[in-house]
Amino acid sequence: MSTCTSRPSRLSRLLFQPATAPLPALTHIADFLAEFRTVAASLQNNGRSASLGGGASALGGKLETIGEVSGHPLFAWTRRVPAHSWYPAETGDPHLTPPLHQSGRRQGLKPTRPMPSSARRQDARQIKQPAIPKIYLSAGVHGDEPAGPLALLELLAEGFFDDRAHWFICPVLNPLGFVKGTRENADGIDLNRDYLACHSAEVRAHIAWLQSQPPFDLTFCLHEDWESTGFYLYEHNPKGRPSLAPALLDAARPHMPIEPAHIIDERPIDEPGILRPEIKAQDRDDWPEQLYLREHFHYDLGYTMETPSSLPLAPRIAAQKALVATAVEGLLKELNA
Q: 300 and 260 in one domain?
């Protein structure tokens, strides 16, 4: 795992603010972006120094501006695992070398010529290569839901986004709403209902970026709900893959209660804290982000997380981080079973 120490800055002071306290200056998008850039640049420099030919953007991540709204950037961070050779080198793992060479090494002998590349390839094919999934995370589509963006910033600083996966991250999809602390953007548009009409510049820029990305193995949208008293989630699982929902509830419990309501957002729950809505795209003209992702074949497993914004910010950030970590662990376990 990459390592990068989080700076004891405005972020650390933010964590223990009461839920009703005004958010400090870090929530200004320029400050958030500066913090994100600092961490991303450190990772990129680490990647450059450790590069084996993959390039800094591959090893250290790439921060790019994908749009701009009234001078405020809309940005994405991606990190693709560099291609590694799975053919064992002559001095590599003895489990990947032919038996004759293994026997000679055990007797202290050295081969007089390199192992034939065909033998290396044959042995390598017998080793199951670990799956490297493509994981998409987004946050901040509603500007008054700060825990998601701050959780992603902390995970980035902690080196969480390592070689286990290819990462595609949009940490603040509503920069002006983030500045103002409003659900909607500056034009009063709820961006999470605009992924069909595409009236907003933010959604148009986001979709243009998404269209240049590969299909994802998992999509994870971080949200908050000011009306709830506990955590709940939406599961979008059109192909019936193994559910991560029970593990996600367990990940949230140390930080907050599970939402007790039987009706959430005018929908009956499927299980305590879990909604599995069967949404037909043709029945809605106010598509949320997850519906756009599903309809355009960007995933076959997606989750929307909802932490209660009535709680203090620190446990909400901690819960969002634990949820991301649990989802990644569960996905890797599924794909490498």
A: yes
Tell me how many domains the chain contains. Answer: 2
Cα–Cα distance measured from residue 43 to residue 3, given in angstroms and rounded to the nearest whole number: 8
Give the residue numbers spanning the domain of 102.
94-125
Residue 89 lies in a domain: no
Q: Based on the residue annotation, tell me whether 224 is a catalytic residue of this protein.
A: no
Interval 172-190: pLDDT, tens: 999 999 888 899 999 999 9
**Among residues 297, 134, 146, 288, which one has the least CA distance to residue 217?**
134
Name the residue among 197, 205, 196 with its Cα closest to residue 172.
205
Cα three-residue angle 106-107-109, rounded to 5 degrees = 100
Q: Is residue 5 in some structural domain?
A: no
Q: Measured between alpha carbons, how far is 256 from 250 in angstroms, rounded to an integer?
A: 10
Please indicate, yes or no, if residue 88 is contained in any of the structural domains: no
- pLDDT tens-place string over residues 129-169: 788 999 999 999 999 999 999 999 999 989 999 999 999 99
Same domain, 172 and 100: no
Q: Is there a contact between 80 and 58 (Cβ–Cβ < 8 Å)?
A: yes
Instruction: Write the DSSP string, 175-187.
Output: HHHHHHT-SS-TT
Q: Are residues 70 and 219 part of one domain?
A: yes
State the catalytic residue, choosing from 184, 306, 329, 334. Answer: 306
Please check whether residue 236 is in contact with residue 274, taking contact to mean a CB–CB distance below 8 angstroms.
Answer: no
Sign, CA torsion 57/61/62/66? positive
Contact 78, 62 (CB under 8 A): yes
Same domain, 236 and 109: no
Strands of the sheet with 232-236, listed across from one edge: 62-69, 72-79, 166-170, 134-139, 218-225, 302-308, 232-236, 274-275
Cα separation, 139 vs 221, in Å, equals 6
* Weakest mean pLDDT among 24-38, 78-92, 155-169, 283-297: 78-92
